[in-house]
Amino acid sequence: MSDQPQDEDEIYVDAQEVFIDEQPIELYKVLKLGNLVGGGGEAKMVIAEGYVGLNGELEQRKRCKVFDGDLVSFNDEYLLIVCEQPVADPKEQLAQKKNKPAKPAKPASKAKSKDKTAKSKLDNKPVEQPRSAITKRRPISF
């Protein structure tokens, strides 16, 4: 017999580890990463039909958020989610986006052209040259 006391609620399963870069991750993506399904469409279908479990409970939400330590079960196979990154906080992501350097300013010539109105554009028409001089083609006569 083993020296470890066994609790009746605990069940030990052989689970394949799925390593992810950031968390949370959607449930259908986990099935794709674990090679349990052929593609995203198939993953969404099996989730919607009720064949996938998350932490011992049936899950039918395709985009259910899965975190580090969660256990996904499908077709008598188990996936354990492993991620070393902390949970991404939406507020922190916004702060990171705000801290990114701004795009460089556009050249002054383009900025000035935006300030002009439509009327001023009509007034500054270039002098029209004869059609044949611009295209070097003869005019068509009907």
From TrEMBL:
A single MF term (Gene Ontology): RNA binding
PROSITE patterns per record: S4
Alphabetic keyword roster: RNA-binding
Comp. bias (Basic and acidic residues): 112-128
Keyword match RNA-binding: yes
Biased composition (Basic residues): 97-111
Region annotation (Disordered) ranges: 92-142
Protein name per the record: RNA-binding S4 domain-containing protein
One Pfam family recorded for the sequence: S4_2
Organism whose genome encodes this protein: Alginatibacterium sediminis
